[in-house]
Design a protein that fits this description.
The protein is mostly beta strands. A three-stranded antiparallel sheet has the order 1-2-3, with no helix packed on it. It has a three-stranded antiparallel sheet with strand order 7-4-11, with no helix packed on it. A three-stranded antiparallel sheet has the order 8-9-10, with no helix packed on it. A hairpin with a 6-residue loop joins strand 5 and strand 6.
């Protein structure tokens, strides 16, 4: 493959074209085949948003919106639990919030299960 079809974000050679967009299956980055001037239009998609569409930032406080089972433990994070001082991460598995939950400890959460406090 040529460099034009490699992902500009992770340089993966497994990118494929879907109509007028190129899609990387490894990092889920999408870009236009027309050129770099349209990449600036899609750059707002890199922000992390909560379940209601609010933009999250490092240091924000969030509230868990539903009961979440903790993998590898018998405990549960109850809906309504407030988590303070989050850190945003870029994880491939979708867990893009690193935080400490009172009574449980350090863990990663998905932004789709929280709302901004």
């Amino acid at each position: 493959m040529t460099d034009a079809t490699n992902c500009p974000k992770c340089n993966s050679e497994h990118a494929y074209q879907d109509r007028n967009l190129w899609i990387c299956p490894e990092c889920a980055h999408e870009w236009s085949a027309e050129g770099p001037e349209t990449d600036a239009d899609t750059s707002h998609d890199t922000s992390v948003r909560d379940a209601h569409g609010n933009v999250l930032a490092d240091g924000d406080s969030v509230i868990v919106i539903k009961d979440l089972k903790v993998k590898g433990a018998s405990s549960v994070i109850k809906g309504g639990t407030k988590v303070r001082n989050i850190r945003l991460t870029e994880a491939a598995d979708g867990h893009n919030i690193a935080c400490k939950v009172d009574g449980i400890g350090a863990m990663n959460l998905k932004s789709e299960f929280v709302k901004k406090a």
